Amino acid sequence: MGERxxxxxxxxxxxxxxxxxxxxxxxxxxxVVTVADDGGSSGRMRAELDVIPPGDLRMAxxxxxxxxxxxxxxxxxxxxxxxxxxxxxxxxxxxxRGALAGHPVGNLLLAGLSELVGDPVAALDELREIxxxxxxVLPMSLVPLDIEADVSGLESDPRISRCIRGQVAVATTPxxxxxxxxxxxxxxxxxxxxxxxxxxxxxxxxxxxxxxxVIPHVLVPEQLAALRRSRAAxxxxxxxxxxxxxxxxxxxxxxxxxxxxxxxAFRVDHVVVDSxxxxxxxxxxxxxxxxxxxxxxxxxxxxAVPGKHVHDPEKxxxxxDSLYEGTWNLLSKTSP
Length: 336
Hints:
- By secondary structure, the protein is an alpha/beta fold.
- The chain has a single domain (5-146, 178-323), classed as CofD-like domains (Rossmann fold).
- Helix content is 41%, strand content 16%.
- A seven-stranded parallel beta sheet has the order 3-2-1-7-8-9-10, sandwiched between helices.
- Helix 12 (252-262) links the parallel strand 8 (233-237) and strand 9.
- The chain is globular and about 55 Å long.
């Protein structure tokens, strides 16, 4: 029996943590990444070059390159140092004040290679081969997407909602996001991502920016259909804390209700939350009922890096391993 297959859905720093965690469990990890970023380097490149935003794709590749379990697999210290150096190079942002200022090297490399080979998936696969990376990075869609949100609290009448467009605008709004949608409304999916979901043994959604990195994955009709058909075990990892802009004041329970409101047919097996974010008692009982909306059982554990609102990848891997009675067999338990 070969390596079991894990697909991680998300974007940004949340997906980075998930990929690092899942690499403890298997070498066959596929990242399916949102492509709606319109800020910073990614925003500039999609506007100037008409490409899917490369930033979250670059971060996912770097996560697979430098996950402790991946680095530990390398033959010697020199190979490990070279891998880390190249990951740092991909993430490095040019300094200065000119046209290149703020662009990460990896964004330019991915955009240029995509132009050269004519396909962002082929470009990502080529980079994976060049850097000898286990796993795969795929875009959620092959066209750049926009996020549009209904936001309340921006008018004198709190009952009135305003439509806001753009991932950065949604993430930084002082109002309260009520609902999001993707533009185009029924975006084309990435066929390779659908195949990965179909063939997966485990699919993990979250954590991450709830309205811009998590919910979009259930708004692509073909991808949602693939998730519903897939026989993979499915795990939803909820954020450690509300995010300023997107989810201020949200309880863990509210995160689940909002996701369910966007895709009430979506089903998962397990909902995973950090124990510090949900005190024992009535609040946890409410959360169990919210998890049941997805047909899921609730699992609570110590998942955070001490003193930070960041998931500890090793703790997350261990908890998910425990859901399946240790059958995933952690590949590595310490960094090299």
